[in-house]
Amino acid sequence: MNDAIQTARTASAAAGSPLVSVEKIQKIFVETGTRIELFRDLDFTIASGEFVAIKGASGVGKSTLLHILGMLDRPTSGRVLFKGKDTNGLSDKSLSAIRNGELGFVFQFHHLLPDLTVKENVLMPKRIAGGLRRADEERALELIRMVGMDHRLKHLPAELSGGERQRIALARALINNPGILLCDEPSGNLDVKNSEHLHALLLDLNQRLSVAILVVTHDLSLAALARRVFMMEGGGLRQERG
Ligand SMILES: Nc1ncnc2c1ncn2[C@@H]1O[C@H](COP(=O)(O)OP(=O)(O)OP(=O)(O)O)[C@@H](O)[C@H]1O
Ligand SMILES: [Mg+2]
Q1: Domain regions of the chain by residue span
Q2: pTM of the full predicted structure?
Q3: How far away, in angstroms, is 210 Cα from ligand 1 center?
Q4: Which pLDDT tens digit goes with each residue over 88-129?
Q5: Is 46 exposed, middle or buried (0-12, 13-18, 19+ CB in 10 A)?
């Protein structure tokens, strides 16, 4: 791609301010005795309000990058920035405050607590963040309504379908009003119909709440919704669209 086009695209994509960035990161796993080097000088930024997808073959490092961006893991070298500030010197307490308060996670498996109702599950991150207020209950109801599950408030996860559980996991990820949702194969366990429903919801929430969305996925129909699309290969990211 010619440099002028690349610059123009980067400029338009960065219309919002940078939320989470990685600079020149490298990740090496040696725990198993085999050295696995995943990224080489990888740079990536997601800005507020964006919808970005990262595709790539199995084992290429998509989940690892998402964990690094979500501050669940650290790179071997390079920097991770949150809202332009280096997170390197931050304590575990500060990092978990960012994770719980400013980032939302949706994984392939819903991770709902089995003994809590739909509403209690959605409110759980608020409890962790330091207690419930009346406004939180209203916010939870609003989010549960947005994902179309307000008729099932008192149900337990076991009483819901896979697609319904994943929609509740999505509402829970939004309860603290994060600037960004980090989604790892969010529809990986769902059939086509439920996947389409979840994908439409992600797009709707991105537009209605202006929450930035990063999905890592094999699912081409999900990637097709994103404004910027990257292919992870050869230790880096190749931009395909945006
Ligand atoms: N904690 C770890 N210790 C050792 N190796 C790891 C660890 N975590 C991941 N890896 C290795 O790093 C590589 C990338 O893993 P990752 O889960 O990021 O891939 P992925 O692109 O998400 O794959 P998939 O599409 O199958 O989910 C794999 O070869 C994996 O075995
Ligand atoms: Mg993965």
Answers
A1: 3-241
A2: 0.91
A3: 30
A4: 989 999 999 999 999 999 999 999 999 999 999 999 999 888
A5: buried
Give burial (CB, 10 Å; 0-12/13-18/19+) of 101: middle
Closest-lying ligand 1 atom to the alpha carbon of residue 27: 12
Domain 3-241 class, CATH top level: alpha beta
Residue 28, ligand 1, Cβ within 6 A: no
d(CA 200, CA 225): 9
130 pLDDT tier (thresholds 50, 70, 90): confident
The upper half-sphere exposure of residue 208, i.e. CA atoms within 13 Å in the direction of its Cβ, equals 12
Query: In this model, does residue 148 exceed pLDDT 70?
Result: yes
**Closest CA relative to residue 22, chosen from 62, 73, 82:** 82
pLDDT tens column, 219-236 = 999 999 999 999 999 999
CA nearest ligand 1 atom 5, residue: 29
Ligand nearest to the CA of 60: 1
Any ligand 1 atom below 6 A from CB of 56: yes
